[in-house]
Amino acid sequence: MKSANHMQEDEHAADRASAKAIKKKLLPLDRANFRDAVDATSVYQFAEQSKSRFLKRSTSYFYTSIRTMAVKKCIASLHLLSKSAMGHMSTPPRSRRACLVFKQADAVKVLTGAFFLTDASSWRALLGALGAVVEMAGAGETLFEPPAIPGSDDTVVCLLAHLTLVALKVRERLKEVTGVVENRKGMNPGHRGLWKLMLQEYHGKMPLSVEVQNGLRLVHGASGDRADVEE
Predict the structure, then answer these.
(1) pLDDT tens digits, residue range 97-150?
(2) Which domain of life is it from (predicted)?
């Protein structure tokens, strides 16, 4: 007869197997939704819809991978472009592998105002993160186009919603570095409200144009409703 500990281990193993099966099933669908999104609402909601397919408290694996990829690429680029002024390499306890760590002062600097839109190096870091997410989603053929200047990086072609989704994920990670913890009651409502605010902020600060701007071309860039979201 199995002990209580053994039974609990069996349950955990079953949960892990179930999670892997869900992840394998959702990833291709989520990638397609990201690639084929046609408006701001669908860009954000593709992950939210994934959650409702099984449990409300479950996490969209692809949505989490967007955050992981965006944060990793953006922070690494900020460290490189700042010539190591931002972030430092540190080896965690019981580990032989060094990792890049941001200090609170670094995070506060990036979070101050529209830093990504006003600082050239930070913009390049954000655009690199967006490009990494596009590649991860398998959407390079749709959302990349040859650069105007030979030898430079490909131009990212997307919606304002794609850009702000990636920027939001990076900002939320940097908020954690500063020690800021949001006070939420009940179930986690997600970041939809924050994303909508960021859409409006970027809409107000970025030019209304479909022309390439610093390596980015917004598909609906000249549209006055490019930041509108269906409720």
Answers:
(1) 878 888 888 888 888 877 888 888 899 999 999 999 999 888 888 889 998 788
(2) Eukaryota
Residue type at position 207: P
- Measured CA to CA, the distance from residue 117 to residue 106 in angstroms comes to 17
Amino acid at 146: P
Burial 124-155 (b: 16+ CB within 10 A, else e): bbbbbbbbbbbebbebeeebbeeeeeeeeeeb
Answer whether 156's CB lies under 8 Å from 130's CB. yes
Task: Judge contact between 62 and 54, C-beta under 8 A.
Answer: no
Q: Strand pairing partners for 101?
A: 88
Q: Which two structure tokens, joined as six digits, stand for 80?
A: 């490189």
**Sign of the CA dihedral 27, 31, 32, 37?**
positive
Write the pLDDT tens digit of every residue in 31-75: 555 555 555 555 555 545 544 444 444 446 777 888 899 999 999
